[in-house]
Amino acid sequence: MNTFANTFKAACVQFCASRDVDENIATVSALVREAARGGAYLVLTPEMSGLIEMNGKALLEKTRAQDDDQALHAFRALAAELGIWVSIGSLAIRIGGDKLANRSFLLTPDGTIAAHCDKIHMFDVTLADGESYRESKRYEPGARSVTADLPWGRFGMTVCYDLRFPALYRDLAQAGAIFLNVPSAFTVPTGRAHWEVLLRARAIENGSYVFAAAQDGMHEAGRETYGHSLIVDPWGEVLADAGHGASVIFAEIDPEHVMSARRKIPALEHDRRFAGPVRPSGSGERKLAS
User: Fold this and answer.
1) Fewest CB atoms within 10 A around its CB: which of 62, 69, 248, 261?
2) Domain ranges (residues) in the chain
C-alpha cells in the first residue's frame, strides 16, 4: 500500500441519539448517505451511534452480542451498498453477563469489519454541576490500542474520554497512525471548556489529522451532549466545525500535510525513553502511592 497516496474527502456525522435503536439506525443511515452524496469516501459517526440509554435495565434489554447487533448489521450493509469506508464511532455491545463494551468499528467498502477497538478509559466522574457518570458500572474497559490501514494511511482508533490521555495518541502515532479518530458524546460543561483545545492539541502533538464526530443535543435518556463535531488538520487548524444540530461536515484530506507538519516539528523522531521521577520517602516526607 502506498501510505501517502491521494487526497480524499472525509465527513463527520452529528446527531442526537435516542433510546430507539431502529430510529437511530435510520437517522445515521440518512446522514451517511448524505455524506456519500457529498463525495466523502470516509464517513465517521459519533460514540454510541446505536442508542443512548441511561437506564441500566433498559440498556441491557436493548443491547446484543456483536454478531447479533442490529445496528452493526445495518451499517455494514450500508457501507457495502455505498462502497465507502465507514467508522462507526461506537456501539454498546454485550460481552457477557451484564457487562458491555463501548466498541468502535471501522468498516470497509465491502462491509467487512476492518478493525474494532473498545474504549480504554472509563468516564467515572462527578462534575461541578452535580452530573455524575459511572461508565465502569456497565462497561468493561479495553486493554489495547488499535490501528488499521486505510487506502491513504494508518487510522488510529479511540473513543471519547480516551481524548484526555495523550500517551495513547502518541502510541498510535508512533505505530504509524496519521489519522486519529475521537468519536464522542461529550457533556456540555466539559465540551465548552476542553473539547476543541484537546482535539487541536492531539493533532499538533502528533502531526496528525483528527476526526471527531460527536453527539449533540438533549437526549431522551436525560443526558445533554455538546456537539461541535470537528475535523482538525496536522497543524492544529480546524477545517470543519458542525456547531449544533444534526448535520454532516466535510473536509478535503491530504496525507502529505502530515508529512509536512512532521518535517517542520519532528517531535515523533525526538521522543526519548526516560526514567520516572524519584518518589520521596523518609522522615518528614509523605510517601507517594506507587
Assistant:
1) 62
2) 8-270
Q: How many residues does the chain have?
A: 290
Among residues 12, 47, 53, 117, which one is catalytic? 47
Catalytic residue among 12, 16, 117, 160: 160
Beta bridge partners of residue 240, listed in sequence order: 231
pLDDT in tens, 101-124: 999 999 999 999 999 999 999 998
Q: Judging by DSSP bridges, how do beta strands 85-96 and 64-65 pair with one another?
A: parallel
**Which neighbouring-strand residues pair with 132?**
126
How high is the pLDDT of residue 21?
98
List 106's β-bridge partners, or say none: 87, 115
C-alpha 98/C-alpha 100 separation (Å) is 7
Residue-by-residue DSSP string for 241-285: E--SSSEEEEEEE-THHHHHHHHHS-HHHH----PPPPPP-STTS
The SS3 assignment for 6 reads: coil
- What local confidence, expressed as pLDDT, does residue 91 receive? 98
Which among 119, 205, 252, 269 is annotated as catalytic? 119
Annotated active-site residue 237? The verdict is no
256 assigned to active site: no
Q: Residue 274 to residues 209, 271, 277: CA-CA distances in angstroms?
A: 27, 10, 9
What is the C-alpha separation between 112 and 20, in angstroms, rounded?
Answer: 25
Domain boundaries 8-270, CATH class: alpha beta
Query: Angle, nearest 10°, between helix axes 196-206 and 166-174?
Result: 30
Which H, E and C letters describe 51-98, residue by residue?
CCCCCHHHHHHHCEEHHHCHHHHHHHHHHHHHCCEEEEEEEEEEEECC
